[in-house]
Design brief:
Length: 303
């Protein structure tokens, strides 16, 4: 089955980014619900250890990270395009949102909503981030988080004034990552009424919709992977890589942010400056190829 399968949960901002990308591309897709906190036995059975969301599955190919998901969707469905226009600062904005703005939105939204979060959720995110998550401290952070977030949102308001999208005439990766982060802050009750350019852009982004999802169970998704073979890589490897890793070595791949306990170990079967692919023999899904972007992931040779 070639239809994209999205593993996700509804509250996740990065999952919202993937849903919005599927909407922009006007795709039909399968939707598999993932628990919000560990254990996530069905997801890690498919990915070989990556427990974060979203994950996009196409047959026995597993794509981790929304940046990579955007590239894959663009390669399979070039129109409407996400391609970077000459003169766009979109890639830089995308990276800034991922490594900076997102954490500000999380500090604000978690702090404001901490009374609605249970202890198990806070313990899970504390283990993932390596930071203590105490209710009083999270609440106490809100005024400063709000001040910083407001300042940074003012920069975005300036950037979007007189402009359709961050990217230019059509949206690109930066628009989708910014959209999902601001969607999260909005769900956290951040007030955008003083930011009309953002509000108008937000409506343009929302209008793309979410495509056409059909529910699928995790068991069914595992069966799809088990019945499929990983596809040809579709990119040329550059091996050995500048990191020292070479094709055929056993490597582990770990997210640089929120990455504790979420590494994938497997045989390196593809690598270039942009992405890498490991082959993992799993018990329930058979052999899968798990793909990551290079930016934001630590690669270590382990065998
Ligand atoms: N860079 C990743 C970030 C993914 C991410 O941080 N996802 C969050 C949810 S928005 C997550 O997985 N949190 C822990 C969890 O859900 O287990 C991407 O673009 O997909």
């Amino acid at each position: 089955m070639n239809e994209p399968i999205l593993h996700h949960y509804k509250e996740s901002p990065y999952a919202e980014k993937a849903r919005a990308l599927l909407g922009y591309k006007q795709l039909a897709w399968r939707s598999v619900d993932v628990p919000r906190i560990a254990p996530k036995p069905d997801l890690v059975a498919l990915t070989g250890g990556y427990r974060k969301v979203p994950v996009l599955q196409i047959g026995a190919d597993i794509y981790c990270d929304t940046r990579l998901i955007a590239w894959v969707l663009e390669a399979r469905h070039p129109q409407p395009t996400l391609a970077t226009d000459a003169g766009s600062w979109g890639d830089i904005v995308e990276n800034w949102v991922d490594v900076n703005l997102f954490s500000k939105a999380v500090a604000y939204t978690l702090g404001r909503n901490v009374d609605h979060l249970d202890d198990a959720f806070l313990a899970d995110r504390s283990a993932l981030s390596g930071w203590p998550m105490e209710r009083a401290a999270l609440k106490g952070n809100v005024p400063l988080a709000e001040q910083v977030l407001t300042r940074e949102i003012t920069w975005i308001e300036n950037g979007l004034t007189g402009r359709l999208f961050v990217h230019g005439a059509h949206p690109g990766g930066a628009d989708f990552t910014l959209y999902s982060t601001l969607w999260f802050a909005r769900n956290g009750r951040f007030d955008f009424s003083a930011f009309p350019a953002i509000e108008a852009w937000f409506e343009r982004m929302r209008a793309f919709g979410r495509g056409t999802p059909t529910q699928m169970t995790a068991e069914e998704a595992l069966a799809v992977a088990a019945a499929a073979e990983p596809a040809d890589l579709g990119y040329e490897s550059r091996s050995p890589d500048a990191s020292g890793a070479a094709l055929g070595q056993v490597v582990s791949v770990t997210p640089e942010l929120l990455g504790k306990g979420t590494s994938v170990e497997g045989l390196l079967v593809g690598i270039d400056a942009r992405r890498l692919t490991v082959s993992v023999d799993t018990l329930r899904a058979g052999r899968v190829h798990v793909h990551f972007p290079r930016v934001g992931y630590r690669l270590r040779v382990t065998g």
